[in-house]
């Protein structure tokens, strides 16, 4: 385990204030749509744009959702998921792909097939499997398909603690030590790297994530901010990592930059007034380019 790395939030950090240029890398998000705009495809596009990449999308499901919860999910027909993937891959120079919500085994198989066909340079998978309530969003068969078909293709997967437990069959970690006890089981999933997110350990002063590489691991720490507005944090972090990978950063650099970005976005979340429940993070905390 390498020494703990501190990532401090500062309002002076700027990620992307320049206009998009022809050399801006293209990043694809494959995920569900959040009608409330705080998570899913909408959060992914905001995060990729705010961190300096051009975002395109393939929608796998349409959710009826707001800051208070999800009331309905409509999976997109398989042939249309496939046609969306063909459309973007055959025209756009997609450097990195972020995968989020995949509703069932059949959609997972379609996405895995297209990833193998088009072979993007980078693949980040946020295994969206467990709702905030703790309910599983994927059946056991779909989790098995995800582990067999898609995760071994990934440069990095970014499970939170309940998702890490669902992937490994272990109990949800309740401490940093128990997170480290999960390392071997997560390595066995055969992704090139794993970022096990410790945000659920709310009693800890800092928000600590565990970056697991084939031969080493490192704890990445950031200040924890007392806010209820954390909707879409996982989507945002994984999208930022994909964006930074597309820009030529190493995996470790992309993870550290992504952690820094989500920390700032959470730190500034209360500047927004969105909805009556758990609001979104502030993707554009760094301000907007002057268009006057």
Poorly predicted segments: 6-13, 288-292
The secondary structure category is alpha/beta
CATH topology: UDP-N-acetylmuramoyl-L-alanine:D-glutamate ligase
Strand order of the largest sheet: 4-3-2-5-6-7
Largest sheet: 6 strands, mixed
Q: Quote the average pLDDT.
A: 88
CATH superfamily: Ribokinase
Order of helix and strand elements from N to C terminus: EEHEEHEHEHEHHHEEEHH
Distance between the amino and carboxyl termini: 49 Å
Radius of gyration: 18 Å
Number of domains: 1
Which CATH first-tier class would you pick?
A: Alpha Beta
Any idea what the shape is?
globular
CATH architecture: 3-Layer(aba) Sandwich
**Number of beta-strand segments:** 10
Question: What report would you give on this structure?
Answer:
- InterPro entries: HMP/HMP-P_kinase_dom (IPR004399), PM/HMP-P_kinase-1 (IPR013749), Ribokinase-like (IPR029056).
- Pathway: Cofactor biosynthesis; thiamine diphosphate biosynthesis.
- This is hydroxymethylpyrimidine kinase.
- One of its GO terms (cellular component) is cytosol.
- The chain contains nine helices and ten strands.
- The protein is α/β, with parallel strands linked by helices and 292 residues long.
- The protein has one domain: Ribokinase (UDP-N-acetylmuramoyl-L-alanine:D-glutamate ligase, 3-Layer(aba) Sandwich), CATH 3.40.1190.20.
- Helix 1 links the parallel strand 2 and strand 3.
- Helix 1 crosses helix 8, helix 3 packs parallel to helix 4 and helix 8 crosses helix 9.
- The longest helix has 17 residues.
- The radius of gyration is 18 Å and the shape is globular.
- The relative contact order is 0.19.
